[in-house]
Amino acid sequence: MLIILMTVSTFIIAQESPTIIRARYITVKDGMSERFIETAGKKTKKYNSKEGSRKFFTWQIIDGPRQGQFVRGIRGTTWSDFDTPIDQKQRDYWQKNVSPNVEKAGNMETWRYYPELSYNGRGENAPASNFARQWFITVKPGMDSKYMDLRRKIKEVHEAKKTDRYFAVYRQLSGGDRNTWLYSSGFYKWEDLNVSNFVSMYEEVHGKGSWDDFTKNLNDALVEGSGAHWAEYWRYLKEASSPLR
Q1: The CATH number of the domain where 39 resides is what?
Q2: Could you tell me the CA-to-CA distances from 14 to 44, 81, 94 in Å, in that order?
């Protein structure tokens, strides 16, 4: 996937139409990870680094069952951008130079980015995240509006407290379960994960006892059972990604 991925943490926001992210998971041949990064980076620099060119991102999953896989996709595009296919020169370059390192490329997945549920406390000119914590969440059918309301409450806390956090919210549109949502939280260093006072901040903004209400409503909105939700850490590969701006 990505978004978000997201990216996912570095996507351009469309103002008049939804921002669409397309990505696929790639498994490389044994011992070819560095070569894949190198050749994908050269392709990206050659074809996807100039203003107006199609922007690509590359991440590597660093824990869990999919550890070692790469996530490669197109970021910050609207639906209309897909009416213009990637030119044949790019496809030929990838096939000749990058594909020999690949064991398996998964099917494409399509995700939608939700700016109204996402938050950027760093400022628009901040560098891309080095890592992202990805939560994949399965919402019960018919409970999307409730889940979105809960995510808005999270964003309201960060806005009220003016935190320096960065997170993005996506929903899968195609290529998988449409009830799957992604909450992508970008960070620079592992110590950035040391946040212990969010519950108290939440109740300062939404009232005493509001966190218990939040967790109850969240549990009501989510599918139960093993495999319905999972988390991964991803590493951003700047050297194999298009410039942010």
Answers
A1: 3.30.70.100
A2: 22, 12, 28
User: What pLDDT, in 10s, does the model give residues 134-171?
Assistant: 999 999 999 999 999 999 999 999 999 999 999 999 99
- Number of Cβ within a 10 Å radius of residue 13: 12
Q: Is the dihedral of CA 48, 97, 64, 131 positive or negative?
A: negative
User: Is there a cis peptide before residue 218, judged by omega within 30 degrees of 0?
Assistant: no
CA pair distance 235, 60, nearest whole angstrom: 5
Does the pTM exceed 0.85?
yes
Exposed/middle/buried for 243, CB within 10 Å: 0-12, 13-18, 19+? middle
Print the domain residue range for 108: 19-141+165-189+227-240
Cβ atoms of 117 and 159 within 8 Å: the answer is no
C-beta of residue 37 within 8 angstroms of C-beta of residue 239: yes
Residue 196 lies in a domain: no
| Secondary structure of residue 151 in the 3-state scheme | helix
